[in-house]
Amino acid sequence: MKEDELDRMTKLLKAALPPVGADAEPARDLWPAVLRRMDGRVAAVPWFDWALLAGLLGLAALAPASIPVLLYYL
């Protein structure tokens, strides 16, 4: 790289990234926003999880000898 390009790149990087001090903190507390976001979510289980569970239960009902194998892989 040429010296001019290097100086230009250095100036661009310094302009893009603010300086970080020893006691740099966010402008506001982020934890209440995280808690609100977690409370707003509903734990929804996709249909394919239920289908997989039904398949495993069916396999265990049809072939009880597969239960120790399935437990081994958990």
Helical stretch tally? 4
Give the mean pLDDT: 86
Rg to the nearest angstrom?
28 Å
Measure the end-to-end span: 55 Å
Query: Quick one: biggest sheet?
Result: none
Envelope shape = elongated
Ranges where pLDDT stays below 50 over 5 or more residues in a row are none
What level of helicity do the residues show? Answer: 55-70%
Give the percentage of residues in beta strands.
under 5%
* Element order: H for helix, E for strand: HHHH
Structural class: mainly alpha
**Count of strand segments:** 0
Question: Can you offer a commentary on this structure?
Answer:
By secondary structure, the protein is mostly helical. The two termini are 55 Å apart. Helix content is 62%, strand content 0%. It has helices at residues 3-16, 31-40, 47-62, 67-72. The chain has a domain at 46-74. 0% of the residues are buried.
What is the strand and helix layout of this fold?
Layout lengths: L2 H14 L14 H10 L6 H16 L4 H6 L2
Quick recap of the structure?
The protein is an all-alpha fold and 74 residues long. It is 62% helix and 0% strand.
